[in-house]
Amino acid sequence: MPPQKKIPWQQKKMWPQTAQYQTREQMFPSTSQTAQYQAQEQMTVSAYERKSILDMHHMIIEWLEKFIEKTGYYPDWERRKQVHDSNIKRQDISNPEKAEKALSNKLITFVRSVGNTPSPSLREELKEKFYQWIDATGIRVGNCPKRLACFLLGTHEILEGKDEKIERDSENKKRDLNPDSYEYAEGLNKVFANIQAPLREERDMEVSLKNKKWNEITIKNQFNGNAERGKIAFEQIVKNITFNDYQNFHFFPQREVQQIGMVGLVGMDLR
């Protein structure tokens, strides 16, 4: 079988999820462009919205780090990782598969909780912190396993509001339990019970930040990395992913092989 041809990321406009990207500048806006977004959109974001979404973003980073820890990709991960006071206390995350499942569940929760809420400026802030994290952890094209690379690309798409792939994967995922079974209902009850404390904390935060503007709160910079370096590193990682790599990557185990419909084929260069 001939080796798989790597498709330069500039041509990845063929992907349904990245059809909007035509140039490097569109996929990776500069810091000055981020500042322009902030100036244009600052009045549309409340302090509560900004704090809540940044907290969810931090949660995703925590689960990315837990996934990397359980895979054993980096023997020195304890030194590389950025979240040393993780809120993850679950004792059942004992292997890479369980960590991956939990990460994917957190990503789909982020998608459905945030929706189209964030302004462009807030989405740029999320990506900037993501780039800082990549730089700080030392994840580079030469040491990034293919599955982690696909997760990083998928996470980046979600931060940009592109949720087609994860929604499609979620719709077609294998079910661990029959929705009509007692075990399924019991699991839902446990989930409902476990989210009550976080919901109360969220309501308290909303009350405490009521009527405050986005720039009236201070968000601590949690990562020591350089966003520009991290953006370059991420771009190089993306460039190393082929079309088939990402097409065959799924956030969840699938019931059956997916077929791209006619809508997904629009704009795709099949040569």
In short:
The protein is mostly helical and 271 residues long. 56% of the residues lie in helices and 0% in strands. The protein has helices at residues 24-27, 31-41, 47-71, 77-80, 96-114, 120-137, 146-159, 164-171, 182-194, 196-208, 227-239, 243-247, 262-265.
Largest sheet properties: none
What is the first-to-last residue Cα distance? 18 Å
Helix content: 55-70%
Oligomer: single chain
Number of strands: 0
Strand content: under 5%
The domain tally reads: 1
- Uncertain stretches: 6-28, 31-43, 260-271
Mean pLDDT: 75
Helix/strand/pairing category: mainly alpha
Reading the helices and strands in chain order gives: HHHHHHHHHHHHH
Total DSSP helices: 13
Coarse shape: globular
Please compute the radius of gyration using only Cα atoms.
Answer: 19 Å
